[in-house]
């Protein structure tokens, strides 16, 4: 457990992070960068289970339970689940209103990668129906309408600002649990998994229900925090996030956090002043491609059931299910893992995913959905390569690093990481290519057009007015 000196150190770090956050937020406000787009992005986090988790943590209302596999974990009280359902309903309604308001404009560009992810979700829905399940439950419908809203949503700096602000609040709130809620946030390493331990010989889950949840959340948030705040605030808050992640005990999250921090420091992505850096961009893209290949191959080559702390067993179950031609083509749908749990094959804590992003997409949506999913990511990278390649590449680094042994992005239902999908889809403005006079070859957008596009994407929310 954390001793007095360790607690004091992290409280001091949290106080410094709070000062950096206030300073960075004041600069954002002074520059007029808090726009309707930032509000939109922040809404996806505020109306999320994470908000409920913060409140429950500081009220001391988490409940500890033990399942049939003798695994002990924390769960929300019934009132917390009701609050989450209420927030999700509000998010769904706002997404529908937002989409209707945006499509009424004729000049709104369509986000094709978002359209492809909508199709992936629909394939999962259809597969569920083919397997006799009802996919039309609130948590899935809300996720679908959020994705649909992303197809016409504004993009750019405002997304980074909104996401970074809310994620930093979660990080700092987690850090301050060392002051009064260590009985929940800090817990000892277990003898059955001695290597699953934080760098200070205890595990830390902050305001979320387990250490992996916090580590994944913080790792995904780091690029947005770095890019949104910039200057010394961005690097300070990113370093703080790395420190918190390293004490969680989550190996996947810790590795992703360190890799992401190094990438941000070396590559220096900047959505405000995008720069053409072909060598750095293509090296980054090659790294992402390598991570993709390893992530896809790993669950099909791993055989040792003792490896990856039970993940190989889960992957073997997935491979067995995919031996059915129907499952291979269109997947098992939303409830595939739920059926595994109901059959007593896996424990409760494993139900959330296949612990591999690429296996999860294949297992839920088959080859059809997998092709569409990878195509969406490839299109995001291809469209950004000339100007915003470093931005989208760095945003994808933590997800690709964790995708080998975790599922950082949901594909058909909402959870604590739902915000990550819209954030990636909307992380850079759409650069409108200018045409050469007397020819049809597109040329790279000028600096003036980039600034104009960025300003438009920052300030435009429902497409009414231009104020921030």
Architecture blueprint of SSEs:
Layout: H1 4-30, H2 36-46, H3 49-59, E1 63-66, E2 72-75, H4 78-103, H5 112-130, H6 138-150, H7 157-175, H8 177-180, H9 182-185, E3 186-187, E4 203-204, H10 211-229, H11 231-246, H12 251-267, H13 278-301, H14 311-322, H15 325-330, H16 336-342, H17 357-384, H18 389-402, H19 420-425, E5 434-435, E6 442-443, H20 447-459
Antiparallel strand pairs: 1-2, 3-4, 5-6
Task: Give structural attributes.
two-stranded antiparallel sheet, mainly alpha, 468 residues, disordered C terminus, 6 strands, single chain, 20 helices
Please give a quick description of this structure.
It contains 20 helices and six strands. By secondary structure, the protein is mainly α. It has one domain (4-430).
Characterization of this structure:
The protein has 468 residues and is mainly α. It has one domain. 63% of the residues lie in helices and 3% in strands. It has helices at residues 4-30, 36-46, 49-59, 78-103, 112-130, 138-150, 157-175, 177-180, 182-185, 211-229, 231-246, 251-267, 278-301, 311-322, 325-330, 336-342, 357-384, 389-402, 420-425, 447-459; strands at residues 63-66, 72-75, 186-187, 203-204, 434-435, 442-443. The strands form 3 sheets. Strands 1-2 form a two-stranded antiparallel sheet. Strands 3-4 form a two-stranded antiparallel sheet. Strand 1 and strand 2 (72-75) form a beta hairpin. The longest helix has 28 residues, at 357-384. It is globular, with a radius of gyration of 22 Å. It starts with a helix and ends in a 9-residue tail after the last helix. The model is unreliable at 434-450 and 463-468 (pLDDT under 50).
